[in-house]
Amino acid sequence: MSAPALAPPAPPDQAQARAETRRERKRRERLEERDATIPVELYGLRQGTVTLLTACCVLFAAFTLVPIVWMIINSTKTQANIFSSFGFWFARPFEFFHTFANLFRDVDGDGTYARWFYNTVLYSVVSGVGATVLAALGGYGFARFEFRGARLLFAVVIAGLLVPITLVVVPLYLVYAKVHLINSIWGMIMPSMVTPINLYLMRTFVELSIPRELLDAARIDGASEARIFFRVALPLMVPGLMTVLLLSIAATWNNYILPLIIFSTNNLFPATVGMGLWLQHAGNSGDTNLFPLLVMGGLVTIIPMIALFAILQRYWRGGLLLGSAAN
Amino acid sequence: MSAISLEKLTKVYSTGVRALDGLDLDVGDGEFVVLVGPSGCGKTTALRMVAGLETISGGTVRFGDRVVNDISPRQRDVAMVFQNYALYPHLSVAENIGFALTNKKIPSAERQRRVRLAAEILGLSDLLNRKPAHLSGGQRQRVAMGRAIVREPSVFLMDEPLSNLDAKLRVQMRSEVLRVHKAIGAATLYVTHDQVEAMTMGDRVAVLHGGVLQQYGTPRELYGRPANLFVAKFIGSPEMNLFEASVSGDELVLGSQRLTLGPAETVLAPYRGRKVIAGVRPEDLELGGGAGGAALGADVRVVEMLGSELHVFFAIDAPAAAASALAATAGEAEAGLLTGQTLGGVARLDPRSAVRSGQRVTFRVDPGRLHFFDPDTGAAVR
Ligand SMILES: Nc1ncnc2c1ncn2[C@@H]1O[C@H](COP(=O)(O)OP(=O)(O)O)[C@@H](O)[C@H]1O
Ligand SMILES: [Mg+2]
Questions:
Q1: When you count CB atoms within 10 A of the terminal residue's CB, does the N or C end of chain A come out lower?
Q2: What is the CA angle B103-A129-A117, rounded to 5?
Q3: Is B54 helix (H, G, I), strand (E, B) or coil?
Q4: Angle CA(B368)–CA(B372)–CA(B376) in degrees, nearest 5?
Q5: How far is A26 from chain B, CA to nearest CA, in Å?
Q6: What single DSSP character describes residue A57?
Q7: Rounded CA gap, B371 and B230, in Å?
Q8: What's the complex ipTM?
Q9: In terms of CATH architecture, what is A113-324?
Q10: Cα–Cα dist B315/B99, whole Å
């Protein structure tokens, strides 16, 4: 007889899992999501209102996207064309690859964009991961443990949220000078790891998504607090952690003022400060061809953020707790 | 020596709420004890204190002769089923059930054997690889049970484990839970707000109200000899009929009617010439006066046909038990409710009885089946 008849029948569950490919699952999830959203026709709004609101959204989207479109178009132009040709259409010669190659060269003695980009990645990833770890621990602690002074401590955190770094630049500089953090990468990374907003986000996330009963069940099951955190809480915190990771990487990625005051060595600069330096020089002496580099540098700087957002997006899907409780 | 004994167990939350007040309770080895009471009466609080999840404001919790007040839940080694199951959503059924064994560092082979055994007892063998999200309510409930029994616990706690199931499944699961209990033989403390569940499942039942223990005994004792008005009203459905009456010589005066007391007379001696609350269960009212016992005339208001029995709602001219008397044990809000509906009473009759609304009927009452309560304290008069 044929082989399939001899093989033991697969348990129904596994068979089902194997039958559905990744693509099919994606498709199913997309359709399920569509079924779960209320179609706009059922909102009880008049058609005119819907059109008007849609128009507003489109306008707003255009407003935010226009600079990016401009950047993409002008990254292909020479300096002369950037100023003389129509901003929203291409012009010959096509200089995209030439300009891109120049990002790796030291064009005017300030240093290379490639180095600054590397620094940006280094600072952002290390402090992003650090911020996420701290937010996970702190948020979980504040959300699920009662301890003396918890309210006061959390109030201090919230207060920290309200103080912009620009306001503390001078004291920060003076303190850094004393503890030798000027021109040190840790001077950049350590403060970037402390992000009150992320701690606040994480606390709220834990409160909403990890029921006390679940942790109590784990305690009854004889798990240590560390094990409860790593084995029960942490896996459920992943969507929140991904949000925090993205936000804190982006914050460091775009940070300008902190690296500006603590770094005086060009090869420690992140992209923001390096390009700031270029901009200064480009303004002073018009002929160094720095404008195409600025446009290209800007483009290269934002692309990783967009990519990161796209990658982490799938973690935003809700429903992680599904099935824990009775209904 | 009991497997679990609670002595003057008290909980005052930091909000000032006295959720539990001096609870004394003991659960014997292998015994199934049900803690029952209306929502908010402190059942969950009591259970969490036994589990070690809540600090103890006063009193002691003993397992055997060991005081466990200051022992963490991890070291108490109790198993517990939570009201909302609290399954680990990211773990499979097998991992959920085996979680406690992994924590105890039980070798993998032994762990798998025990998980399979527990799954078999609960009929979960085919679902071991599923995540909780892909289970029905009843299956989730079983996983929650499996997580508890796999540990072979000596103390087993359950907090309203069936309250999230639909009515039919709930009835099925009652016997299921009892079957599992017989199989593992652990001392069990089972919490529910459902008196039917309590009566059908418990070896003994503790009725809790407002954080205070009202009565602790077998279902038969609770039903047959309720210790106070609260228990009398809470246990049994339809509820016991309660009327305000007075004692005159060897007769009970119910409005314009007089019932000859017979043997019940002696316990009522102290109440001669005073008010007393008289109670009678709906099934202790029988149609047709005269043939022994006292007769009670009533006007039929509504007749409900249930198929197996007939509920006959009637009115008599005796006042319903006064609010103040019920308030003594039943709490004010409920007292209001009770008097509202006790303008008459209800009888549970043979479905073939020919009774129509608007009819005047005579019920026969065996005076020995009457319950009496003190109108001031609500305590049973015996
Ligand atoms: N953590 C808490 N803090 C303050 N009060 C509480 C807390 N938990 C329960 N209570 C109060 O204690 C009383 C008993 O609650 P609970 O034990 O949950 O009742 P049950 O389980 O019988 O419904 C209620 O009045 C409730 O509001
Ligand atoms: Mg409860």
A1: N
A2: 155
A3: coil
A4: 170
A5: 18
A6: H
A7: 13
A8: 0.85
A9: Orthogonal Bundle (1.10)
A10: 59
Structure tokens at A119: 């620094």
Q: How confident is the model at residue B267 (pLDDT cuts 50, 70, 90)?
A: confident
Please state, in angstroms and rounded to a whole number, the distance separating the CA atoms of residues A131 and A124: 10
Domain boundaries, chain A: 41-103, 113-324
pLDDT, residue B249, reads 81
- Written as one string, the DSSP assignment of B63-106 is ETTEE-TTS-HHHHT-EEE-TT----TTS-HHHHHHHHHHHTT-
Nearest residue in A to B54, CA atom: A216
Tokens of B53: 């999840």
Tokens 């949220």 appear where?
A161
Give the chain A residue nearest B103 (alpha carbons).
Answer: A223
Count of other CB atoms within 10 angstroms of residue B169: 16
**Residue type for position B269:** A
Chain B positions in Cβ-Cβ contact with residue A147 (cut-off 8 Å): none
* CA separation, residue B249 to residues B260, B261, B320, B339, B374 (Å): 9, 9, 22, 27, 17
For the cut 60, the answer to whether the pLDDT of residue A222 exceeds it is yes
pLDDT, tens only, A307-317: 998 888 777 65
Sign of CA dihedral A200, A203, A207, A209: positive
| Chain A CB within 8 Å of residue B49 CB | no
pLDDT tens digits for range A75-121: 998 888 888 888 888 888 888 898 888 888 887 777 888 999 999 99
Give residue A31's pLDDT.
83
| CA A216/CA B76 separation, integer angstroms | 13
Of A14, A232, A323, nearest to B134 by CB-CB distance is: A323
Contact B126 A224 (CB under 8 A): no
Supply B41's token pair. Answer: 């009466």
Which has the closest alpha carbon to A158: A204, A200, A194? A200
Is the pLDDT at A12 greater than 50, yes or no? no
What is the structure's pLDDT at B333? Answer: 43
Q: What percent of chain B has pLDDT over 90?
A: 65
pTM over 0.90: no
Taking the CA of residue A65 and the nearest CA in chain B, the distance in Å comes to 39
B295 touches A: beta carbon within 8 Å: no
Peptide bond between residue A93 and the one before it cis (omega within 30 degrees of 0): yes
Which structure tokens are listed for B33? Answer: 């004890």
Cβ proximity of B214 and B225 under 8 Å: no
Per-residue b or e along B357-377, where b marks 16 or more CB atoms closer than 10 Å to that residue's CB: eeeebebbbbbeebbbbbbee
> Stretch A26-35: mean pLDDT, rounded?
81
Going by C-alpha positions, the residue among B257, B226, B228 that lies closest to residue B365 is: B257
pLDDT, tens only, B190-238: 999 999 999 999 999 999 999 999 999 999 999 999 999 999 999 998 9
Q: How far apart are CA A125 and CA A189, in angstroms?
A: 9
d(CA B72, CA B85): 21
| Bigger pLDDT: B332 vs B284 | B284
Q: In chain B, which ranges are continuous DSSP H helix?
A: 43-51, 73-76, 93-103, 108-122, 137-149, 167-184, 195-201, 219-224, 229-234, 323-330, 332-341
- In chain A, residues with a C-beta closer than 8 Å to the C-beta of B132 are 322-324
Quote the CA–CA distance of A96 and A86 in Å, as a whole number.
Answer: 17
**Which chain B residue lies closest to A222 (C-alpha atoms)?**
B74
B322 strand-pairing partners: none
